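Weekly structure sync, notes
Attendees: PL (lead), two postdocs, one rotation student
Agenda item 3: pending single-chain targets
PL asked that the sequence for the first pending target be pasted directly into the notes so everyone works from the same version. It is reproduced below exactly as submitted, 149 residues in total.
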Amino acid sequence: MSRKYCFPAVFILILFLATASAVHAEEDRYTIVVEESFYTVAPENREEFLRVYKTRLFPFWQEMKKMGITVDDYRMYSQRIHTVKPLWTYKTVVKFKNYAAIDRWLEIRDEVYRKLFPGESGYKDPRKIIDAISGNHWDEFIREIPLNR
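Predicted structure, written out during the meeting:
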């Protein structure tokens, strides 16, 4: 191939690969599994609830992100303006890469937790504390719906 055709050929190849990568990333966006967890926590238990999340569960989920199980930072929310009766006090959001990542998380969560916190028996330890101080808890698995299709 002559040099005058080499640059356009390379340019077209790079453009093709970039476009294919962008299309694949768009498709991956819709395979993400979002888990929203809602908690109702009495005022006297809120400090302990946040302590457990900040010191035990947040570091755990950061490790899950490093391992590629989750695709975004673990997040926690509270309501800014409450209605007559708030349905929830705190909401956490985790985005799993896909359903296979959830299966992998279930397999390794105790092992990873014990590495982070030697001497503790596993992921269920902080969950027991959270369950004991939460008045109500439920999870919702949601998915994004593509609106541009």
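Discussion points:
- Residues 32-142 form a domain with the Alpha-Beta Plaits fold (CATH 3.30.70.100).
- The chain has a mean pLDDT of 85.
Action: rotation student to compare against the earlier draft before next sync.
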